[in-house]
Design goal:
With about 325 residues, the protein is an alpha/beta fold. The chain has helices spanning about 10-20, 30-40, 60-65, 80-85, 115-120, 140, 155-165, 180-200, 205-225, 235-250, 255-260, 265-270, 280-295, 300-310, 315-320; strands spanning about 5, 25-30, 55-60, 70-75, 100, 130-135, 145-150, 170-175.
């Protein structure tokens, strides 16, 4: 099976590495010099020190990357997703599975990435547009550490084929027909990871983090179900699994942003020194707009927004959360 991965960041390169071990794989990089480095065996910008498989090709020509592809995986940030997928409109066959690796919400439209895909590729088979998501920190996977992921797609026969493509001794793949739930969980958890990072940056311990993660899961489940996701999805790998990984790991970009905010640094300063995108910074506003649209209360996400966009101090945000009106657990 010929595979195209669009986006040569750490996650796109990792997925391309997994695929290239058994299938001819092309990885699209925006910059020709990065594509050349990947062809030479390393991605120095996003995964320095990791040797890439010999069978992995790389190109800065997106049309060459998708030419003849039997599956396309999109691994570009949410804010550039539409512009990139527009470049392959009319080129990719409508029956070719397209899988989003992007965990974000488009600003303005409030669309999930699968919705953006179908908005641009309006003749594409919607049952073959899905997501791959779960507790998947790129460097741990490149190190060969065991983990699992979910491929969510309405066409379960195609999902099962893709499951076999990526399944390996250290990368277990499950299938799930709940595209809305899996995709929503992946986007919402980034906001919560910023909150968890702030908790750690403030010096709070395990009780605080456990409380935060538990209440964060309640928030993202409420909104995800209101958007059409299945409740059980949020207790699985795409929900709880991904939430835990990104909330506790210093390898998570969103956690790192929150941690530095908790230490008292400004958002502008943090963003200026990081090369990779922390989706939660952009997604928080969209998440709250979605919550308003569906009438869902999200106090943690609200306080994250106050810190990110209004300059509120993280410690003040924690105090506001802890002194909210008492109520039953739900």
């Amino acid at each position: 099976m010929r595979i195209a991965v669009i986006g040569a960041g750490s996650w796109g390169t990792t997925i391309a590495t997994l695929a290239a071990r058994r299938h001819p794989t092309a990885l699209w990089a925006r910059r020709p010099e990065l594509a050349e480095a990947i062809r030479a065996g390393e991605n120095p910008d996003y995964l320095p020190g990791y040797r890439l498989p010999y069978g992995l090709d790389a190109t800065a020509d997106i049309l060459a990357a998708v030419d003849g592809a039997e599956v396309v995986l999109m691994a570009v940030p949410s804010h550039g997703y539409r512009a990139v997928i527009e470049q392959i409109a009319g080129v990719v066959d409508p029956d070719v599975p397209i899988v989003s690796l992007t965990k974000g919400i488009e600003q303005g439209t409030l669309q999930r990435m699968t919705e953006v895909t179908l908005d641009v590729l309006d003749d594409h088979d919607p049952q073959r547009v899905g997501v791959l998501t779960g507790p998947n920190l790129a460097k741990e996977i490149m190190d060969g550490q065991p983990t699992a992921t979910v491929i969510a797609m309405e066409d379960m026969e195609t999902a099962t084929v893709l499951q076999r493509v990526f399944m390996g001794p250290t990368f277990r793949v499950y299938t799930n027909p709940d595209v809305v739930g899996c995709e929503t969980a992946g986007a919402l958890k980034n906001v919560m990871a910023i909150a968890a990072g702030m908790s750690s940056g403030l010096g709070f311990g395990d009780n605080s983090l456990a409380t935060l993660i538990t209440r964060a899961l309640a928030e993202l489940t409420r909104l995800g179900v209101a958007m059409g996701g299945r409740p059980q999805t949020f207790a699985g790998l795409a929900g709880m699994g991904d939430l835990i990984a990104t909330c506790v790991s210093d390898k998570s970009r969103n956690h790192r942003v929150g941690f530095e905010l908790g230490r008292g640094r400004s958002l502008d300063e943090i963003i200026a020194e990081t090369q990779m995108v922390a989706e939660g910074v952009k997604t928080t506003k969209a998440v709250l707009e979605l919550a308003g649209r569906h009438g869902i209360e999200m106090p943690i996400a609200t306080e994250v927004a106050h810190v990110l966009y209004e300059g509120e101090r993280p410690k003040a945000a924690v105090l506001k959360l802890m002194t909210r009106e008492a109520k039953p657990e739900a």
